[in-house]
Amino acid sequence: MSPSVDPSRYTVVPRTLSFLLNGDDVLLLRLPSNHPDWPGCYNGVGGHIEVGEDAAGAARREIREETGLDAEDLRLRGTVLIETGRTPGIALYVFSGSAHGTPIIADGVGEPRWVNRAELAQLPFVEDVPTLIGLVLESPEEFPFSALYRYTAQGALEIILDRPPTTPG
């Protein structure tokens, strides 16, 4: 480790989150009802980047593990740094791509499901997912976005983007 890197200042857990498309459908993962943070809510597909993996490779692996599908045209859409209020924070790499086929249910992870874009407004989501879906679906040719998440003293999520978000619908 470089002597100029202070581990207490620069520690993050690297993660991926992917949104795959198949026509007008988006592949989402419904979290189990016993999930500690977001029971029954919908999220993209993702997880931790393991030692020795790059972000895109980790995203492909997580998609395969959680859905049984192979991502096509996977590309980085944005990065999010998440201040959790303690060390470590989270560095989130957001991807989009496409896939085809029927997803399989992986044990304990949740239920992957193709959701038509017209249905998105009716679903319960993990707190930041509507913003991320809007950024990914409504601006497919934009350069990657950059965001910072932090929580207020009241526990509300504050999303600071390098540009205004759009919402799904």
Strand and helix map with partners:
Elements: E1 12-22, E2 25-30, E3 42-43, E4 45-48, H1 55-67, E5 72-82, E6 89-98, E7 111-116, H2 129-138, E8 145-151, E9 157-161
Parallel strand pairs: 1-6, 5-8
Antiparallel strand pairs: 1-2, 1-4, 2-3, 2-7, 5-6, 8-9
Q: What does this 3D model show about the protein?
A:
With 169 residues, the chain is mostly beta strands. Helices cover 14% and strands 37% of the residues. It is built from two helices and nine strands; from the N terminus they run E-E-E-E-H-E-E-E-H-E-E. It has helices at 55-67, 129-138; strands at residues 12-22, 25-30, 42-43, 45-48, 72-82, 89-98, 111-116, 145-151, 157-161. A hairpin with a 2-residue loop joins strand 1 (12-22) and strand 2 (25-30). The longest helix is centred in the middle third of the chain and has 13 residues, at 55-67. The relative contact order is 0.22. The mean pLDDT is 90.
Task: Characterize this entry briefly.
Helices cover 14% and strands 37% of the residues. It is mostly beta strands. The chain has one domain (12-161): Nucleoside Triphosphate Pyrophosphohydrolase.
Keywords:
169 residues, mainly beta, Nucleoside Triphosphate Pyrophosphohydrolase, nine-stranded mixed β-sheet
Order of helices and strands: EEEEHEEEHEE
CATH topology: Nucleoside Triphosphate Pyrophosphohydrolase
The largest β sheet comes out as:
9 strands, mixed
Report, as a whole number of angstroms, the end-to-end distance. Answer: 46 Å
- What general outline do the C-alpha atoms trace? globular
